[in-house]
């Protein structure tokens, strides 16, 4: 990439291959060409880059958090406060983000920290490409980073280096007054912003095609009741807007602008497109207790970043309800928003003989398939994962256990059934290709029933090591 | 002439006087005459809280109680919610006790307080047939809240007590059951037959505690009276002759 600074053509960016051969951003193009004659040079396109970054921020806005903004030249800010639960926690969120973006062909570094400044520094100068900084750990993790991580102009960085300030830690220890006198307020402001001493609000990106409604308050409000009432009014207005456009909400963001310039966010998702204001209000109100109003909230904005086409719905007659009735979606939404995604689910059969693989989780509103498991095989209602080791006395090769010890408690087997032989799934791994489990259902003297298995067929050691495990308890 | 009908109307009127907000949603009979006859409402009341815990050797893990509960909610015929903290539920086993996978929603809560909240919220939703929660503690206040929610919507609430702490402490459940394993009969051939449970009704509002030996739920969720008990009189006669 070559760009122009004044009248000079310089290298603006170089890919890893070029950097390995000694090309650096900031080098004159002529020099680079002299070093690598077969160099491919593309003209830099700052406007295009900025537009691309904005598009990326728009994607993050829909899929990660309602407060996202481009941070030129090469970053995107995302304020994930209050949104991580929908994506399964901070680490899961970052790996999702990194995974999706690398699939799209970007090389990504991501970081979560208490403050935007710290996240910015850790993403660019941290050790790992994926960093989750523990709350309150900003000071410690920023200390070893170079001063250039503080978003300072190049000349300030140079001047600080000349004075012996190599890391942010050095800067933290230095007396503040001389620093301010020498470098102006910027160095200290950036430092304070990174450490969270002074706030740094993100100016969120506004995407015009996202339906939104806003409500400003002449006098800031702070009580939960007021907030809930305002959310209800906004939900009604948004419902009308969506009705006109024939849309239903799949995700809803409620952004509270606080007096001190910071924002608080509630994000809720729905399992099926809806625009019922009562339902939407209920989902939002459930979360209002998580909002910290600070000194008061002066503006509330409700938007629907992810929507789906929702026409007028015909009321179903009582005759044709198919399995799961449609009105469960309201309950599923309420539970999902309370417990988190993937915490509300159904279990569906999988065609596999290996017990722990014979079911999988599916979405709570997935279509009922009517499929079941084979009804003639004994299966317990409770399964131990992983199976618990037991000491067993049994005759080889395929007699049922006579007695066994589980959790230091001996059990004498009165009746038994088996073996039910289950073979490993040879297409999965070489190890599994010849492995065998023999399952026995046994009943002890008290009538309690256990599901035990032995690894191996009892004759050939290559099929398993003849250890016994308790896999489940029958009712 | 129609004395039983009058008695039933009177009972309903008393019930309405006792708690006007409660909806009389009906009952779910066990389909086993000697249990149904013993229960004051001839079955499990739908708009109520029932507690099921494990007993005997199975007190900690409550596998028998799990199957018993699955049999009950499986016979309701509508979608049910199963709330738990641990995920050791095995779908095929529940299906064998009469609970088909298409009709169960599972909710995984991180702690018991959240689970009780979720249960209460779900009980207010009339689209469900029953809400079951695997709880350790069931204090009076929490159980009262569940009862009120269940009475209002007519959805059955079941507290499945696993590793129950303070199992004998009073709570507001309409009936309390304890299910323990019981030795099954030897078969004439090697193998094991249908499992047996000792079903203890330890508390029942408007009724008395009682115990039964029953055969475990079949794939339709129905209990059965053990054969040698069902025709004991006939067997005794045969022995006498």
Can you tell me about this structure?
The complex is a heterodimer of chains A (475) and B (241). With 475 residues, chain A is α+β, with helices and mostly antiparallel strands. Chain A is built from 14 helices and 18 strands. Chain A has helices at residues 16-20, 29-35, 46-63, 90-103, 116-125, 138-142, 154-162, 168-173, 176-183, 185-195, 224-245, 277-287, 328-339, 430-433; strands at residues 2-5, 8-11, 67-71, 75-79, 110-112, 130-132, 212-221, 247-258, 263-274, 297-309, 344-349, 359-362, 382-394, 401-406, 409-423, 436-444, 449-455, 468-473. Chain A has a six-stranded antiparallel barrel. In chain A, helix 11 (224-245) runs antiparallel to helix 12 and helix 12 packs parallel to helix 13 (328-339). The longest helix of chain A is centred in the middle third of the chain and has 22 residues, at 224-245. Chain A starts with a strand and ends with a strand. Mean pLDDT of chain A is 84; it is low at 319-324. With 241 residues, chain B is an alpha/beta fold. Chain B has eight helices and ten strands. Chain B has helices at residues 3-18, 33-38, 63-74, 91-96, 112-123, 140-153, 227-230, 232-240, and strands at residues 27-28, 44-45, 49-54, 80-84, 104-108, 130-135, 156-161, 175-182, 196-204, 210-215. In chain B, the strands form two sheets. In chain B, strands 5-4-6-7-3-8-9-10 form an eight-stranded mixed beta sheet, with helices on both faces. Chain B has a two-stranded antiparallel sheet with strand order 1-2. In chain B, strand 6 (130-135), helix 6 and strand 7 (156-161) form a beta-alpha-beta unit. Chain B is globular. The mean pLDDT of chain B is 85. Strand 11 of chain A pairs antiparallel with strand 5 of chain B.
């Amino acid at each position: 990439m070559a760009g122009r600074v004044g009248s000079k053509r310089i290298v603006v960016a170089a890919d890893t291959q070029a950097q390995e051969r000694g090309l650096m951003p900031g080098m004159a193009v002529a020099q680079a060409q002299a070093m690598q004659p077969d160099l491919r040079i593309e003209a830099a396109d700052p406007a295009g880059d900025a537009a691309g970054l904005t598009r990326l921020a728009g994607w993050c806005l829909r899929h990660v958090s309602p407060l996202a903004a481009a941070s030129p030249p090469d970053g995107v800010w995302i304020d994930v406060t209050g949104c991580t639960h929908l994506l399964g926690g901070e680490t899961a969120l970052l790996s999702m983000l990194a995974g999706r973006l690398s699939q799209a062909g970007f090389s990504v570094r991501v970081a979560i920290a208490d403050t935007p400044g710290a996240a910015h520094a850790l993403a660019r100068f941290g050790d790992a490409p994926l960093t989750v900084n523990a709350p309150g750990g900003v000071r410690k993790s920023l200390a070893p980073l170079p001063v250039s991580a503080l978003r300072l102009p190049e000349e300030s960085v140079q001047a600080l280096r000349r004075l012996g300030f190599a890391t942010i830690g050095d800067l933290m220890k230095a007396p503040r007054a001389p620093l301010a006198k020498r470098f102006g307020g910027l160095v200290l402001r950036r430092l304070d912003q990174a450490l969270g001493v002074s706030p740094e609000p993100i100016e969120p990106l506004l995407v015009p095609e996202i339906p939104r409604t806003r409500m400003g308050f002449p006098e800031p409000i702070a009580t939960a009741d007021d907030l809930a009432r305002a959310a209800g009014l906004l939900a009604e207005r948004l419902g009308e807007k969506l009705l006109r456009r024939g849309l239903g909400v799949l995700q809803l963001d409620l952004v509270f602008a606080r007096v001190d310039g910071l924002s608080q966010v509630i994000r809720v998702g729905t399992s099926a497109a809806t625009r019922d204001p009562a339902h939407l209000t209920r989902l939002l109100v459930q979360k209002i207790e998580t909002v910290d109003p600070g000194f008061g909230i002066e503006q509330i904005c409700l938007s629907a970043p992810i929507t789906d086409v929702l026409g007028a719905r015909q009321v179903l007659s009582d005759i044709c309800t198919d399995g799961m009735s449609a009105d469960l979606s309201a309950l599923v939404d309420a539970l999902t928003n309370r417990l988190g995604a993937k915490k509300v689910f159904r279990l569906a059969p999988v065609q596999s003989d290996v017990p722990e693989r014979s079911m999988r989780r599916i979405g709570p509103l997935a279509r009922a398939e009517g499929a079941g498991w084979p009804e003639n095989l004994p299966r317990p209602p409770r399964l131990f994962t992983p199976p618990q080791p037991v000491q067993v006395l049994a005759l080889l090769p395929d007699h049922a256990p006579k007695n066994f010890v589980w959790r230091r408690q001996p059990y004498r087997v009165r009746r038994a059934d088996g073996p039910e032989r289950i073979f490993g799934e040879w297409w999965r791994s070489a190890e599994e290709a010849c492995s065998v489990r023999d399952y026995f259902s046994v009943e002890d003297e008290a009538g309690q029933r256990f599901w035990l298995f032995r690894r191996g067929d009892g004759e050939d050691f290559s099929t398993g090591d003849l250890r016994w495990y308790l896999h489940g308890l029958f009712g | 002439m129609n004395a039983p009908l009058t008695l039933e109307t009177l009972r309903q009127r008393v019930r309405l006087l006792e708690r006007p907000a409660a909806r009389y949603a009906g009952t779910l009979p066990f389909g086993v005459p000697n249990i149904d006859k013993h229960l004051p409402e001839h079955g499990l009341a739908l708009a109520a809280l029932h507690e099921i815990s494990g007993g005997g050797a199975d007190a900690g893990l409550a596998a028998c109680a799990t199957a018993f509960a699955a049999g009950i909610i499986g016979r309701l015929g509508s979608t049910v919610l199963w709330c738990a903290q641990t995920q050791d539920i095995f779908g095929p086993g529940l299906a064998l006790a009469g609970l088909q996978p298409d009709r169960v929603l599972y909710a995984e809560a991180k702690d018991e307080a959240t689970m009780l909240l979720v249960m209460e919220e779900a009980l207010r939703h009339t689209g469900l047939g029953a809400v079951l929660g695997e709880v350790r503690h069931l204090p009076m206040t929490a159980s009262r809240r569940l009862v009120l929610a269940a009475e209002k919507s007519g959805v059955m609430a079941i507290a499945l007590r696993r590793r129950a702490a303070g199992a004998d402490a009073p709570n507001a459940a309409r009936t309390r059951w304890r299910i323990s394993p019981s030795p099954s009969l030897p078969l004439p051939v090697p193998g094991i037959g249908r499992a047996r449970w000792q079903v203890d009704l330890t508390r029942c509002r408007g009724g008395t505690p009682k115990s039964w030996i029953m055969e475990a739920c079949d794939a339709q969720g129905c209990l059965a009276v053990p054969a040698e008990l069902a025709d004991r009189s006939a067997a005794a006669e045969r022995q006498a002759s």
